Amino acid sequence: MILYTRLFTIQQTNFLNKLIKKAAVIILLITAAFSFFSCYETNERTNPIVIWTDNEELASYVELFNATHDAKAVIIYKKEVLRALPPAKDEQIPDLVIASELKTEDVRKIFSPVEFIFGEHKLNKSIFYSKLLEYGTSKGTQYLIPVSFNLPTMVFNKNNASFITDDHIIMLEDIKNASANFTAKNDSGTIYLTMGYAPSWDENFIYNITKLKGASYRESENVFSYDENAINQVIQYCKNWTVQNNESTDTEQNFQFKYLYMHKFNQLSTDKCLFAYMPSNEFFTQNQNESASISFRWLSDGDCVMVEDNIVSLGMYKKSKNPQKAKMFMQWFFSKDTQKLLMERMKKMNLTTPQFGIVGGFSSIKEVNDTVFPIYYRELLENLPVESYLSVPGALPSRWETIKSRIIIPYLIESIDTQNNKEIKSLEQRIDNWSKQAF
After folding, report:
1. Closest Cα to residue 153, out of 348, 6, 297, 43?
2. Is the Cβ–Cβ distance between 72 and 42 less than 8 Å?
3. What is the pLDDT of residues 242-251, one digit of tens each?
4. How far does Cα 432 stand from its chain's mean position?
5. HSE of 332 in the Cβ direction (CA atoms, 13 Å)?
6. SS3 readout for the chain
7. Phi, psi at residue 108, to the nearest 5°?
8. So what's the pLDDT on residue 354?
9. CA distance 125 to 232
10. Winning range, highest mean pLDDT, from 21-35, 235-249, 257-271, 422-436
């Protein structure tokens, strides 16, 4: 009996030891699992996708991405992204850059090729506008993926649609002729009661028609190059327009000061003028809230519509630490379903300052513009961007908007003034002065 009891006690003890060992193993596995997932979660949050951008709208996009993915992303806002690269010491290195003015001659030194994102079960190049996609290449390799773009529009009151001959585009000569037919004076012929349009009213209009007529602005060793003959032809054309239609630049400016001091939509509503110039993002943002009586045509030469310079692109920084996670974000973002969801979300947020489209412009994905945009912008039902018309700018120097506003625009304004008898500094002289000050 004693022997049996001892044997039972020994067996019981062995059984209990085995249970304890198994329990210990299970606890160890559970602890390891918790440790693994805890480390994974910590890693996901402490090693996020870092996105540098000059567009505040990206914050909302990243918020949605983070809510639907294990991987996380963070936004770092930079007013001039390219000038902020390379990152300062101890600054977070970007994985992705989503901004305007990324296409420069140095694109291959800054960004990694992104050809890997295309192919079977990935992104298909055919979903993008081909010329925009080509814009992101250098020596045949894709370094940038277009995100959004805008187009120049001539805007008018629908009550004056009889002056417009085409349903989709409007050419320079059409604007000039329609303006002449719209313009009216008082009975004595001394005071303008209406004035169709004047080249001197909008500096961006003048700049855009130089692009349309072949100015070919492009980055070069001497800041930028251009076609001088094309610019001179536009200057002479504008001066002739002013003299023939509106007498002088002073007359145009006085009329604008007297009657057109309000927002452009209100200008058109007064019937004092026929046209106003706007980039598409400005037109569609304003038209959502202010007036259903205003319509538009794409500014064209009959063969092309020049894409505005501020194309937003995405590039993967050459020293990215998270290329795989960055790839995940890219595949998520460049999806029709994602962009549809982003636009729905922005609409529901009911922002006091409305945003246009995707990152402030038309999507680089054709199907998004064709099927999603008209839901929110009814005017597009009758006049969507046509791929074959699009013409994109070349590689422009960084800080192009600043260069344009300080060199090109002042030169054009002075040059088209029919009463300016002062000597005008040439573009070359202005570029030299800029170079001395900037560098």
Report:
1. 297
2. no
3. 999 999 999 9
4. 30
5. 20
6. CHHHHHHHHHHHHHHHHHHHHHHHHHHHHHHHHHHHHHHHHHHHHHCCEEEEECCCCHHHHHHHHHHHCCCCEEEEECCCCHHHCCCCCCCCCCCEEEEECCCCCCHHHHEECCHHHECCCCECHHHECHHHHHHCEECCEECEEEEEECCEEEEEEHHHHHHCCCCCEEEHHHHHHHHHHHCEECCCCCCEEECCCCHHHCHHHHHHHHHHCCCCCEEECCEEECCHHHHHHHHHHHHHHHHHHHCCHHHHHHHHHHHCCCCHHHHHHCCCCCCEEEEHHHHHHHHCCCCCCEEEEEEECCCCEECCCCCEEEEEECCCCCHHHHHHHHHHHCCHHHHHHHHHHHHHHCCCCCCCCECCEEECEHHHHHHHHHHHCHHHHCCCCCHHHEECCCCCCCCHHHHHHHHHHHHHHHHHCCCCCCCCCCHHHHHHHHHHHHC
7. -75, -20
8. 73
9. 39
10. 235-249
> What CA–CA distance (Å, rounded) separates 377 from 289?
11
The answer to whether the beta carbons of residues 314 and 96 sit under 8 Å apart is: yes
| 99 contacts 399 by C-beta, under 8 angstroms | no
* Residue pair 360/312 in contact by the 8 Å Cβ criterion: yes
Mean pLDDT of 154-180: 95
Tokens of 15: 């059984």
Please tell me the pTM assigned to this model: 0.87
**Is residue 102 within 8 Å of 315, Cβ to Cβ?**
yes
- Mean pLDDT, rounded, for 154-165: 95
What's the pLDDT at 422? 87
Radius of gyration of the chain (CA): 30
Residue with structure tokens 């500096």? 203
With a CB cutoff of 8 Å and minimum separation 6, the contacts of 11 are none
What letter represents residue 381's amino acid? L
For the chain, give the percent of residues with pLDDT over 90: 72
**336 closest CA partner among 295, 372, 305, 375:** 372
CB atoms within 10 A of CB 419: 10
Contact 52, 76 (CB under 8 A): yes
Instruction: Say whether the peptide bond before residue 152 is cis (omega within 30 degrees of 0).
Output: no
The model's pLDDT over 191-234, given as tens digits with 9 standing for 90+, comes to 999 999 999 999 999 999 999 999 999 999 889 999 999 999 99
Other beta carbons within 10 angstroms of residue 203's beta carbon come to 18
Strands 73-77 and 49-53: parallel
The whole-angstrom separation of Cα 429 and Cα 435 is 10
Please tell me the distance from the alpha carbon of residue 328 to that of residue 275, in angstroms, as a whole number.
45
Q: Are strands 152-157 and 362-363 parallel, antiparallel or unpaired?
A: unpaired
